[in-house]
Amino acid sequence: MSSAPADHRAGDLVLEVRDLSVAYLMDRGAVAAVDRVSFDLGRGEFLGIVGESGCGKSTLLFAIAQLLAPPATVTGGSVKFKGTSLVGLTERQLMAVRWRDLSVVMQSAMNALNPVTSIGKQFADAMQAHGVTSKKEIAARSAEVLRMVSIDPVHLKSYPHQLSGGMRQRSMIAMALLFTPDLVIMDEPTSALDVVAQRALMTQIKELQRELGFAVVFVTHDMSLVSHFSERLLVMYAGQMAEWGATRQVFDNPRHPYSIGLLDAFPSITGEKVPLTGIPGQPPDLSRAQPGCWFAPRCPQVMDRCASTPPELYPVDRTLVRCLRYDGTPPDPAVTAGAAQDSAGATRGTEQR
Amino acid sequence: MSMPISGITTGQPDAGPAPALDPVGPGVPAATAAVPGGAASALRRMTTAIRRNRKATIGAVLLLLFVLVAIFPWVIANDNPNADAFKPRLGVSTAHLLGTTAYGQDMWAQLVWGTRNVIIIAFTAGLATTLIAVLVGVAAAYLGGAWDGALGVLTDVLLVIPLFPLLIVIAAYANGGGTLVLILVITVTSWSYTARQLRSQALSLRRRDFLEAARVRGERPLYIIVVEVIPTMTSLIVACFLTNALYAVLFASSLQFIGLGDPNTVSWGTMLYWAQNNAALQTGQPLWAIAPGACIAALGAAFALLNYAFDEIGNPALRPLRRNRVKRAR
Amino acid sequence: MRYAVRRLGFFVFTLWVALTINFMLPRLMPGNPALAMLSKYHGQVGPGTLKALEILYGINTSKPLPEQYVTYLHQMLTGNFGTSLEFYPSTVSSVIGSAVWWTVGLVGIATIVAFVVGTWLGIIAGWRRGGRLDSALPPVFVVTSAIPYFWMAMVLVLIFGITLHWLPYIGGYDVAGDTPAFSPTFLSDVLRHAILPAAALLITTVGTWILTMRNTMITTLAEDYVRMARAKGLPGRRIMLDYAARNAILPNLTGFAMSMGFVVSGAILIEYVFNYPGVGYMLLQAVQSEDFPLMQALFLLITVAVLVAILIADVATALLDPRTRTAA
């Protein structure tokens, strides 16, 4: 399975993920949470991963960062970080890479920060773990990163519960930048904030990225938010890649019915008024295997063979789409009429589903 | 006496610490998480869960065994436990499975018939205590305000005053008493721990949607409490009953052991009393003391296992991990 | 600060409730138990003592109840607990004084050791999740913690005292052979006599500490901040102690305080089985000989001890958890 049409020079890649699969080992058997995800990420690039709750995006992140905990476990594929495979490294070997080159920002800072130690101590922890012992150096660097996110360094002495939500989130980002890593993985860091704070935070992240040159993998359920800031976009559904390519392509011209649905759910604030459409149905129960496409039960453009044939990733223009409509076979004549109607209704327009 | 194991699961991360004044605030065992649905479905869920969890099954089987022996003691022991009709201090034999006491009574008969007294105490005191706990806990959560404050203080005071010494003092003044007095005394004093847990859950339920719906429908508060809230708390109430029954057994046996029960009742605790009085351990009649004690331990273990299993059922993180080999895909 | 004041207020209130219970109980019981006590000791103790008791229990007195109550409170709070009947003519205070140190030594030390060892083992068991030890532990300790303390005591007496003759099992020291003094022989004798009762207490209590700590550790280890600590590349020991244990121990400290009542109960019974000359054994003796002044005073003492233990646990929690310090 190849990654997106290559526009990366070999050697410029920060992250190479190939066929990564993760499963949860439950009493009733293994449930696949991530199924053969592949992508490349270049130096300084911003990748957005979008999908609804339960689609496996957080699991994917943790799998990449080697932070899975039982019963979740990697069942296949590889993750190469700057050329070195991460899967299979011992905890000891991973420790050298952690934070120095690869750091993580989690969703809720209230939960991700140790409630009984001060912010400063948590910054110091990370630095001490990587050989920085001079108290002066630690203090200086801590203050420096806090200033980068516009927080007064006096707050190093504060405890997490003493800071506001926005400040906590920003201090987590500051902590992630302590060693100016090459890759920062962010798991819905803005979901807990209000819309205004979200925007401000995203802008700040983008600025820091420009300044410091780190790559970002950014997970969210908010497609429109991430599309403003990312260069590449990966839409996930049921643990699989649904659509993948440059943001401009995927966002402006989504092909997978799910991506279309996602975008329809967030109408543009500047565009014309459209009736709000959602995606009907429930997220799939991954413990029950589906013979065909996972999205078939909810797909407004579903064809007969969708329920029995699992789609692969098919290249369309410069994106990859996991949808049988693009597998190259000419559409069933019997279905053509229906399909034409469907696609007419599916474009962002007037019809309400 | 022995100590409770409550699976202290942390509550919602943002809830902050449980203030010491409310030790079982967010720490309500999650097993007993409230799921809307009536009491019947809750009971059904519990029985399935018990069957699946090994600890719970052992506990349940053990408990059932004791209950059966309590109801049908004559099936396995036909001698009259009180009749001092045999030669004293006989050892183990086929005629006397555990031998005889210093008074010539058949020990096995005493043990088996004594089960009845213990089970009665466990279930009666356990149920009564749980009833009070439910009333106090749910009332405190629903009435709120001054009522909650007053009930809370009452609960906390009883929680903090050492119960066993209090029981000793009360029983001493009452000059010992029969089973009924024991049950009464235990019920009146030991409801506070479980009342706290019930109050916490009732409080968290107050804000749940299905109750809002009932309120909006115009149902009276009493109706809501009895018909909607309490059935939802079924699994916690059952867990509380198990805890209270366990303590009733331990407290009652301990009181009987030190002579504050009626020494003429046939019970495990009274057997221990007589055994201690006759220096059973030192005079070569160890079974007189060890056997009833073992039964108390076994019954206690049954309650404790069931209770502990409830925690595991509710908090899957605590379950024993499966050692699994995963096939590498493709 | 406000929190500390509220806590102290609560304790004072609880103490007052305990005092009041002590006062009201004999008066509420059918068939005034004090009368029985008085008639039992008539002729065995001096008339002055009996008179004082009559006043204390409100018999043959024309004083109204509230006045009796105030006198009673005054007496209790000034430490005037009267004269013991069983140990006449010693005062209750002196009798208690001789027993207190035995209990503090045995129960205090055994409990603290059990808590420390249990918590430490619990931390490790929770950390090394899934090991063979971790799978075997829980059921074992669930069962051991349901074992009545006194039964464990009896089993130990039977095995190590009577059958194997390894250790003494009666009293705090060899009453016949030794006289209390700060001599090595006496001290070693004391230690030998303390082993079995301490073991009984330890075996039955340690299980609970191990299990509750293990459970809170496991739950804490699932928290995001622990995953974050892993992400930062912190060494395992650091994560286990600073991130997991520091947080997991908090509910345990409160649990420790709350369980003091049970520890006390168990201690009473263990002292009884071993005839260990502590406060618990004395309480039971007082009950059996209807020495109510002594019994009352012991009850109050035990209550105060438990309150103090809870207070200490509260302070420890406040020290370890910054959130309580800033909470209103």
**Strands of chain A, count:** 12
Quick one: biggest sheet of chain A? 8 strands, mixed
Task: Tell me what the CATH architecture of the domain at 99-290 in chain C is.
Answer: Orthogonal Bundle
Percent of residues of chain C in helical segments? over 70%
**Molecular shape of chain A:** globular
| Low-pLDDT segments of chain A | 1-6, 334-353
What about the largest sheet of chain C? none
The portion of residues assigned to helices of chain A is 25-40%
In CATH, what is the homologous superfamily of the domain at 99-290 in chain C?
A: MetI-like
- Global structural class of chain C: mainly alpha
Q: The CATH topology of the domain at 99-290 in chain C is what?
A: MetI-like fold
| Cα gyration radius of chain C (Å) | 24 Å
Summarize the structure.
The complex is a heterotrimer of chains A (353), B (330) and C (328). By secondary structure, chain A is an alpha/beta fold.
Give short descriptive properties of this protein.
heterotrimer; B: 330 residues; mainly alpha; 12 helices; 62% helix; disordered C terminus; C: 328 residues; MetI-like fold; 13 helices; 78% helix; globular
Could you explain how this protein is built, in words?
- The complex is a heterotrimer of chains A (353), B (330) and C (328).
- Chain A has helices at 57-64, 91-97, 109-112, 119-129, 135-148, 165-176, 195-212, 223-227, 247-252, 257-265, 333-346, and strands spanning 13-26, 29-42, 46-50, 72-81, 84-85, 102-105, 183-187, 215-220, 232-237, 240-246, 314-316, 319-321.
- Chain A is of the alpha/beta class.
- In chain A, strands 6-7-8-3-9-10-12-11 form an 8-stranded mixed sheet. In chain A, strands 2-1-4-5 form a 4-stranded antiparallel sheet.
- Mean pLDDT of chain A is 82; it is low at 1-6 and 334-353.
- Chain B contains 12 helices and no strands.
- In chain B, α3 (107-143) packs antiparallel against α4, α4 (145-160) runs antiparallel to α7 (192-206) and α10 (234-257) runs parallel beside α11 (268-277).
- The longest helix of chain B is centred in the middle third of the chain and has 37 residues, at 107-143.
- The termini of chain B are far apart.
- Residues 1-31 and 322-330 of chain B have low confidence and may be disordered.
- Chain C has a domain at 99-290: MetI-like fold.
- In chain C, 78% of the residues lie in helices and 0% in strands.
- Chain C has helices spanning 2-28, 33-41, 47-57, 65-77, 92-127, 132-146, 149-163, 184-221, 224-231, 236-274, 279-288, 292-320, 322-326.
- Chain C is globular.
- The model of chain C has no long low-confidence stretch (mean pLDDT 83).
- At the B-C interface, α4, α5, α10 and α12 of B face α1, α6, α7, α8 and α10 of C.
